[in-house]
Amino acid sequence: MHLKSAVIAAVLALSSALAGCSITGGPMQMFTNDYGARVDAGYQLPAIPIYKVDRKYQRQVVRYDTTEVPGTIIVDPQQKFLYFVMPDGKAMRYGIGVGREGFEWKGNARVALKREWPRWTPPREMIQRQPELTKYANGMDPGLSNPLGARALYLFNKGGDTGYRLHGTPEWNSIGKAMSSGCIRLMNQDIIDLYNRAEVGAKVIVL
């Protein structure tokens, strides 16, 4: 009996190691009441009907054991979660929307720039796919309908600008889905929270 227990313990330990030493549990703290309307930089940010958003995609503190230092951002596209690593084996977890099939990406980057209510300039390739976006070739003004939402974190690697962003979205119902052109989107209230936590230079890992 003791031998069987020892074998089970060994298997569980190995499984944890193979999982990249990241273990999550139930929520330690929920922020369900933080999705109300607010005025932000002069913009009237509407409330999100958070009761329509799956509870697992609502902002929450969870257990998260990792060797990465606090301040690191880890994106799990498969589970549709973004983790902001905190001290003491914790992380702030946000629900995200990710790139649809053919637009996925993975790798390491760093937050090179942070912008509040950024302008959005569609990439040339996107304009070719969607000619109706030509009118925004020189950029779309910030606002409630801007695809980048209330905040954007610009990701660079050794090759320079990756073209990918962590950004807000007015389309709260896209969280938990794969429908973007590769960028990682969060609800506007969540990207504001992440923006206030993340530092320029922060490491970003997309699994």
UniProtKB/TrEMBL annotation:
Residues 1-19 form the signal peptide. One of its GO terms (biological process) is regulation of cell shape. InterPro entries: LD-transpeptidase (IPR050979), LD_TPept_cat_dom (IPR005490), Transpep_catalytic_dom (IPR038063). Residues 71-207 form the L,D-TPase catalytic domain. Pathway: Cell wall biogenesis; peptidoglycan biosynthesis. GO terms for molecular function: glycosyltransferase activity; peptidoglycan L,D-transpeptidase activity. Keywords: Cell shape, Cell wall biogenesis/degradation, Glycosyltransferase, Hydrolase, Peptidoglycan synthesis, Signal, Transferase. The active site is at 167 (proton donor/acceptor), 183 (nucleophile). CDD domains: YkuD_like. One of its GO terms (cellular component) is extracellular region. Belongs to the YkuD family. This is L,D-transpeptidase. It comes from Oryzicola mucosus.
